[in-house]
Amino acid sequence: MKLVIHLAILSGLVLFSTASFSSNPQAEISQMLHYFADEWNGGELDSLKSHYHPDFVLISSNSVQTKKQRLDDLEMILAPGKDQGEMSIADIQVEMLGEKHAMAYGRSRLKFKDGTELGSMFSSVYVKTPFGWKAILTHE
Fold first, then answer.
1. Is 39 a domain residue?
2. Rounded CA gap, 71 and 48, in Å?
3. Cα separation of 62 and 59, whole Å?
4. Total Cβ atoms within 10 A of residue 58
5. CATH number at residue 65
6. Is 3 exposed, middle or buried (0-12, 13-18, 19+ CB in 10 A)?
7. How far apart are CA 62 and CA 71, in angstroms?
8. Which pTM does this prediction carry?
9. pLDDT grade for 94, boundaries at 50, 70 and 90
10. What is the DSSP letter of 105?
C-alpha cells in the first residue's frame, strides 16, 4: 500500500513539473532573458555559457561570431576588475516559430560605473532542447 501511495505522489509530481515548465514558452524565454541579465550583473560566466546552443552564431554590426568566439569575448569582458556594465533587458516580445523554435526581440542596456550607457535592440532565435531554451542565433 505504501508503494502505491509513493508511486501516486511521484506520478503527480512528474506531471505537475512537466506541465509547469512547458506550458508557456513565451514566459519561459522572457524569464530566461531577465535571468541572463542577472547572471551578467553577477559576473556568472559559467551560467552565461549555458544560455547558448552548440551551433550559436552572433551577428553584430561589425562581425559574425561562433559560440566559441562569443564565450571567449565574455570571458574577457567579465574578467575580475573590469567594468562589464550593469545589464537590463526591456520590451521583450516572444513569437513562436513552431513547437521547438521561438524568436525573442527587445532592448538591452549596459550602464557603466562612469555613467555612460550602451543601448541596443536585439533579436534571438531559440531552440527548445532537453535542457531548456537555448539561443542559436542572435542579432544585435
1. yes
2. 9
3. 8
4. 20
5. 3.10.450.50
6. exposed
7. 17
8. 0.79
9. very high
10. E
